[in-house]
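Final report, closing paragraph on structural work. Over the funding period we assembled a curated collection of sequence-structure pairs, and we close with a single example.
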Amino acid sequence: MTPVDQTRFYDAALPVHEQRGNCLQAAIASLLDLPLGDVPHFVQDHVDSDGQRDWWDSLVAFVRSQGWNPHAAMPITDYPDQHLFVSGPSPRGGGIWHVVIYRDGQLVHDPHPDRTGLLHGLAGAGSAYGLHRIDNPEVRA
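Its predicted structure, as stored:
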């Protein structure tokens, strides 16, 4: 895991197709040891005309193209020694969700420059996912 920072931040003043931050993009780049520009901005790139997001299928297709498969990882304590991308409420408010990386129950990378993690830490996590190799599920990111 090579930490990559996000470069875009949520801005409600922008049109819906431009307002999303890229913390998920940065988290996936970190887990796959890729430069940010080599990873799609899943959430921003998959907004329909009603502002709905259909990004999960794109994320799955991308990580699979890299030889990995995502898997649900809740409860997080059942996945020791594995980096997990975890989503939950942002401490910056506004009802925005944020994505960070945990390992062994500890925050190891927040792609936002203030490094504050999630609003309530793991207690407030809404979802967590890990990655494992398609050709060998025992190999984890």
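The chain has one domain: 23-133. The chain has three helices and five strands. We thank the funder for supporting this effort.
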